[in-house]
Amino acid sequence: MTNAQPVQPGLIVVDKPQGITSHGVVSRMRRICGTRKVGHGGTLDPMATGVLIVAVGKATKLLTYVSGLDKSYAATIRLGQATVTDDAEGDVTASADASAIADASIHEGLAAMTGEIDQVPSAVSAVKIDGQRAYKRVRDGETVELKARRITIAAIEIEAIRREGAFIDVDIDVSCSSGTYIRAIARDLGDALGVGGHLTALRRTRIGGFGLDTAATLETLAERSAAGEPLGALTMGEAAARLMPTRTATEAEAKALSYGKSLEAAGIEGRYAVLGENGDLLAVMIEKGDQAKPETVFAAAS
């Protein structure tokens, strides 16, 4: 495995293409970066495109702090047709004429899904049932019933309502908590309106502070690597600053952290990153009383 230049540990925001799994993106990135130590945060279905955070080297330790971030999506719901997967990749299970559905009913149906709600994940999902993924059970012919999960949908904005014969296509932007299934929004809207629904397009536009504005395609990244150019990765310090509050350590504090020692509390609530004076990521800390205890140390003493 070779690469035009050494790739420093960091996070790369990839604009995932359609038709490839998130693991497939990781495989491509291993070749581009010249290392097997590559991981991703936040799986996207093969049909979906958009923001996929890829970590290289020691930055894979940061992925645990990516998984719970809020997300934003652009999606298209087709009303009048239900599928086994709740998206366009599955077989059609039912069809109905949706042409009589009023725009107002669509607005009301989506408005009812905002806020804190209990959402049942799509049956063809990565949720585990007795240790086995739900999607595998469905593909093996089982009928799967998943329990509802509490999620938060901050907003659903309708961008367009397009009438296509018996179908209605609804373009939406969604801001939501981690664990939200956009496919389930399509399914539930179709069920509420009595005509069935599924997702025909999905693009993730943001994970936390990481958006499409800093994303690059796999082709662009491969070209940069072949030309010996920087891939555009965020350093571990830059990435940590987008994930959580930061604190700068003195030289003496940095040395103490390298041995896993606690620091004096700084009065910062919740988890935060400690950076060196040069901006390098040293540790992630949580304060307890008058002590800041390291949760993960990135610059350990050798």
TrEMBL record:
Residues 183-224 form the tRNA pseudouridylate synthase B C-terminal domain. Gene3D superfamilies: Pseudouridine synthase, PUA domain. Residues 244-298 form the tRNA pseudouridine synthase II TruB subfamily 2 C-terminal domain. The active site is at D45. Its EC number is 5.4.99.25. It holds the Pfam family TruB_N. Residues 30-182 form the Pseudouridine synthase II N-terminal domain. Signal peptide: none annotated. Belongs to the pseudouridine synthase TruB family. Type 1 subfamily. NCBIfam families: TruB. Responsible for synthesis of pseudouridine from uracil-55 in the psi GC loop of transfer RNAs. PANTHER family: PSEUDOURIDYLATE SYNTHASE TRUB1 (PTHR13767:SF2), TRNA-PSEUDOURIDINE SYNTHASE (PTHR13767). This is tRNA pseudouridine synthase B.
